[in-house]
């Protein structure tokens, strides 16, 4: 390829998370020159594994491969990474009124379980063609329709499941948008990447990739002739760009598009919502919970405690808690020390023992206020059905949007982000083919 040809075919990829690196990899496999511009000094974005907290990897961002039929497995196999099924999913407990209730206690929970009830409420609301509303209202209607005596404890747990599943509260979630992305064909089991999730994305960086870390993109000039991005005082020209900026970053407007993005795309960006998540990893002085417990969902705050060492056969008392939705926002506002005290108080109440003096080390990751994430995973409020599809449409055949928020059926996941990167790369390749370029 001569220099002119190279300039005509170069593609910029903005962001080196799962979506950006998947796109870069696919493009390079077809002989397309790629430059990846990443603001952080690492790849992975919302995948972040800590290797210094314990003798095993501890996930501070994405934690599980959800399902045994998702695209992440292709990479895991290709890169020879080790994966194991997460044992905690079979030892789930709910903390309610100072006692632990096994998730397999059918007499105290709705038939089929709490999660199934949420999905049923949403599906029945849509099937009845009722106007879009919040998941909270649909659930109230569903409970009444089935003549259930949903006690107040169920409601608290439904809120916790929403906070973890969607990083939002039931009152914030729209039924139709949520229904669009309720896809159950991927399998229900959760898996951990034994080598750490970060390795999946790190291995996507192939030798020779022009990867510029520490390059926050400030401006993207675009026209039908191509794109020019400005980052770290340098300019980068290309035929087109794959933009994988997180939804919260697009909403904040910290990256300027010149000219501004078309109104319909802007509506899609503003109509979706970035969820909120607050994660703390804590090492305790000694054992804190009974051996049969794998993980605990708490209602105050709305979160889930995990013991990541479980699948590695380690008894190190290292735990993580993921808090989502409005409670994550509230913890953020408290500052790290008070937030840690609050999550430990919540677990103390659940276990019926005071753990306040037992914490040896803690690390906080506030995804909501991380300036390069500005949220956990995106969710769909009332009236936002169809917006993800709109967000994934190319603009003028030069801007190709990817990232979890653009995934129509698997948003908020690593596999959805990977797929979106491949989808955007394929659209770029089609554009080159249509313009008469030959691909390898
Ligand atoms: C706490 C938490 C738990 C999760 N748990 C799971 C889970 O168990 N399983 C699962 O499948 N998914 C999970 N997810 C979701 C998953 O992490 C994301 O859906 C996925 O990683 C998003 O990938 P992405 O490429 O779309 O975005 P990102 O990973 O956010 O990548 C975007 C990149 O753009 C960069 N960037 C931002 N601004 C600029 C700029 N101006 N210039 C250049 N670069 C910029 C960012 O630094 C980032 O690297 C979780 C997420 C969180 C936060």
TrEMBL record:
Superkingdom of origin organism: Bacteria
Pfam families on file: Amino_oxidase
Protein name (record): Tryptophan 2-monooxygenase
Listed pathway(s): Plant hormone metabolism; auxin biosynthesis
SUPFAM superfamilies xrefs: FAD-linked reductases, C-terminal domain, FAD/NAD(P)-binding domain
Family: Belongs to the tryptophan 2-monooxygenase family.
GO terms (BP aspect): auxin biosynthetic process
Domain Amine oxidase residue range list: 19-429
MF (Gene Ontology): tryptophan 2-monooxygenase activity
């Amino acid at each position: 390829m001569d220099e002119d040809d190279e300039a005509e075919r170069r593609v910029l990829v903005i962001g080196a998370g799962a979506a950006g690196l998947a796109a870069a990899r696919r493009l390079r496999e077809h002989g397309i020159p790629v430059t990846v511009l990443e603001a952080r000094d690492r790849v992975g974005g919302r995948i972040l594994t800590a290797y210094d907290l314990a003798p095993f990897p501890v996930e501070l961002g994405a934690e599980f491969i959800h399902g045994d039929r998702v695209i992440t497995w292709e990479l895991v196999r290709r890169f020879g990474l080790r994966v194991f099924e997460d044992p905690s999913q079979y030892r789930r407990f709910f903390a309610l009124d100072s006692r632990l209730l096994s998730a397999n206690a059918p007499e105290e929970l709705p038939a089929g379980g709490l999660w199934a009830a949420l999905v049923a409420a949403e599906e029945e609301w849509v099937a009845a063609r009722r106007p879009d509303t919040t998941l909270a209202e649909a659930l109230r209607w569903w409970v009444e329709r089935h003549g259930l005596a949903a006690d107040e404890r169920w409601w608290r747990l439904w809120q916790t499941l929403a906070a973890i599943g969607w990083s939002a509260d039931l009152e914030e979630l729209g039924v139709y948008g949520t229904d669009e992305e309720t896809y159950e064909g991927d399998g229900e089991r959760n898996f951990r990447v034994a080598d750490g999730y970060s390795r999946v994305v790190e291995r996507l960086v192939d030798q020779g990739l022009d990867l510029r870390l520490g390059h926050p993109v400030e401006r993207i000039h675009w026209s039908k002739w191509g794109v020019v991005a400005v980052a770290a005082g340098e300019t980068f020209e290309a035929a087109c760009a794959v933009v994988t900026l997180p939804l919260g970053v697009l909403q904040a407007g910290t990256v300027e598009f010149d000219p501004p993005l078309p109104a319909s795309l802007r509506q899609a960006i503003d109509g979706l919502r970035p969820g909120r998540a607050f994660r703390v990893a804590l090492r305790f002085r000694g054992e804190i919970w009974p051996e049969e417990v794998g993980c605990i969902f708490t209602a105050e705050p709305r979160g889930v405690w995990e013991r990541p060492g479980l699948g590695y056969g380690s008894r190190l008392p290292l735990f993580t808690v993921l808090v989502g939705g409005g409670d994550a926002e509230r913890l953020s506002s408290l500052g790290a020390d008070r937030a840690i005290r609050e999550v430990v108080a919540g677990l103390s109440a659940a276990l019926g023992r005071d753990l306040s003096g037992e914490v040896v080390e803690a690390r906080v990751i506030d995804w909501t206020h991380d300036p390069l994430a500005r949220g956990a995973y995106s969710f769909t409020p009332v009236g936002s059905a169809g917006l993800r599809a709109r967000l994934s449409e190319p603009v003028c055949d030069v801007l190709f949007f990817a990232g979890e928020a653009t995934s129509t059926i698997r948003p908020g996941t690593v596999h959805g982000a990977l797929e979106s990167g491949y989808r955007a790369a394929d659209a770029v390749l089609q554009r080159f083919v249509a313009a008469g370029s030959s691909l390898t």
